[in-house]
Amino acid sequence: MTKYHAKKTTLDGITFDSLMEARRYGELKLLLRNGEIDQLEVHPVYPLVVNDKRIGKYIADFKYMENGREVVEDVKGVLTAVYRLKKKLMQAIYGTNILETKG
User: Fold this and answer.
1) pLDDT tens across 71-93, in order?
2) Residues 6 or more apart from 39 whose CB is under 8 A from it?
3) How far apart are the C-alpha atoms of 18 and 103, rounded to whole Å?
4) Of 41, 65, 74, 95, which one has the fewest beta carbons inside 10 Å?
5) Per the confidence metrics, is the pTM higher than 0.70?
């Protein structure tokens, strides 16, 4: 258990930080199988670089294509201060709005 009571869960050999995230993965797999999304990636990593200095990295829960547009998705129970900062950095650096979902 983590401090937010999330339970790590393994599905298809992939370890997810929470049961909510694993459930969302299952939903996305169905969408992928039905052709509603494609290019599903689990835990893609984005370097956070500002003025040629690496600040850190953001690891999304999922990335996929939907209707020709890239979607970066994070399953959230708690919006921490660190997450909110990384979300702003993703917008500033990559122009990416993160889709936040509940599992």
Assistant:
1) 999 998 888 999 999 999 999 99
2) 63, 64, 65
3) 9
4) 95
5) yes
